């Protein structure tokens, strides 16, 4: 099994719908992150969490919310999806400054 | 604020040729620098990282990178490119160990194409 698992891998949803992307990890890391990737823009940080009780906004948090249900689980929600939220979403974990471990990504299309 | 610039959006090289991908960073303290690779449809894999010590660091898959503080650069190199190296490469900068947040800032990426 992968260290960082994201579900679903692909999702198509309609404008205005609520959608949740889930991330779970077996690394035992305290810190978890959500990034979105858009062609030509690289990865941009949406939210990050240092532990279950610590949630922080990243540079592009508007339109998103997160929940850290447990040390191993960090979910990202789009309360009312819009087309410009179509992107590739990555979850990542870290424990020290040794770099991140990334999930395989969720490709989200909002139509 | 920290930032990373990868000047080359797309590079094409012939198989067997040498490769250098450029990365310039801006960071207010001692940086922790990374290179990641993303193959099509995959997540990001760590190639190498640098915090201190020898400014030439070796990574996986035959890659190396050189840290040049005076130029705020951390360029990635490979002596002989293989077709399987075709991917997108991301440079990232973060805080030094023990300096607090481990949040990384990524460059916009350089897409590498390899001609057989």
Commentary on this structure:
Chain A has 111 residues and is mostly beta strands. Helix content of chain A is 0%, strand content 58%. In chain A, a hairpin with a 2-residue loop joins strand 5 and strand 6 (54-57). In chain B, a hairpin with a 4-residue loop joins strand 8 (64-68) and strand 9 (73-78). The relative contact order of chain B is 0.33. Chain B contains no helices and twelve strands. Chain B has 116 residues and is mainly β. At the A-B interface, strand 4, strand 5 and strand 9 of A face strand 5, strand 6, strand 10 and strand 11 of B.
Features:
heterodimer; A: 111 residues; mainly beta; seven-stranded mixed sheet; four-stranded antiparallel sheet; 11 strands; B: 116 residues; six-stranded mixed sheet; 0% helix
Could you give the topology of this structure?
The complex is a heterodimer of chains A (about 110) and B (about 120).
Chain A: E1 4-7, E2 10-13, E3 19-25, E4 31-38, E5 42-51, E6 54-57, E7 65-70, E8 73-78, E9 87-94, E10 101-102, E11 106-110
Parallel strand pairs in A: 2-11
Antiparallel strand pairs in A: 1-3, 3-8, 4-5, 4-9, 5-6, 7-8, 9-10, 9-11
Chain B: E1 3-5, E2 10-14, E3 19-21, E4 24-26, E5 31-38, E6 44-50, E7 56-58, E8 64-68, E9 73-78, E10 87-95, E11 105-106, E12 110-115
Parallel strand pairs in B: 2-12
Antiparallel strand pairs in B: 1-4, 3-9, 5-6, 5-10, 7-8, 8-9, 10-11, 10-12
What is the approximate shape of chain B?
Answer: globular
- The ordered string of helix (H) and strand (E) elements of chain B is EEEEEEEEEEEE
Largest sheet of chain A: 7 strands, mixed
Overall mean pLDDT of chain B stands at 91
Summarize the structure.
Chain A has 111 residues and is mostly beta strands. Chain A contains no helices and 11 strands. In chain B, strands 2, 5, 6, 10, 11 and 12 form a 6-stranded mixed β-sheet that branches.
């Amino acid at each position: 099994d992968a260290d960082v698992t994201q579900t679903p891998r692909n999702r198509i949803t309609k404008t205005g719908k609520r959608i949740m992307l889930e991330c779970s990890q077996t690394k035992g890391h305290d810190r978890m992150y959500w990034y979105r990737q858009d062609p030509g823009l690289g990865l941009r940080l949406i939210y990050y969490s240092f532990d279950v009780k610590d949630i922080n906004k990243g540079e592009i948090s508007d339109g998103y919310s997160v929940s850290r249900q447990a040390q191993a689980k960090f979910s990202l929600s789009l309360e009312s999806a819009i087309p410009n939220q179509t992107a590739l979403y990555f979850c990542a974990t870290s424990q020290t400054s040794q770099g991140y471990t990334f999930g395989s990504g969720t490709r989200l299309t909002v139509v | 604020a920290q930032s990373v610039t990868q000047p080359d959006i797309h590079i094409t090289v012939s198989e067997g040729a040498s490769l250098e991908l450029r990365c310039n960073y801006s960071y207010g303290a001692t940086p922790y620098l990374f290179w990641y690779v993303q193959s099509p449809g995959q997540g990001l894999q760590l190639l190498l990282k640098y915090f201190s010590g020898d400014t030439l660091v070796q990574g996986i898959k035959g890659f190396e990178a050189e840290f040049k503080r005076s130029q705020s650069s951390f360029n990635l190199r490979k002596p002989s490119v293989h077709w399987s190296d075709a991917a997108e490469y991301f440079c990232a900068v973060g805080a030094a160990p023990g300096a607090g947040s481990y949040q990384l800032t990524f460059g916009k990426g350089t897409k590498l194409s390899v001609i057989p």
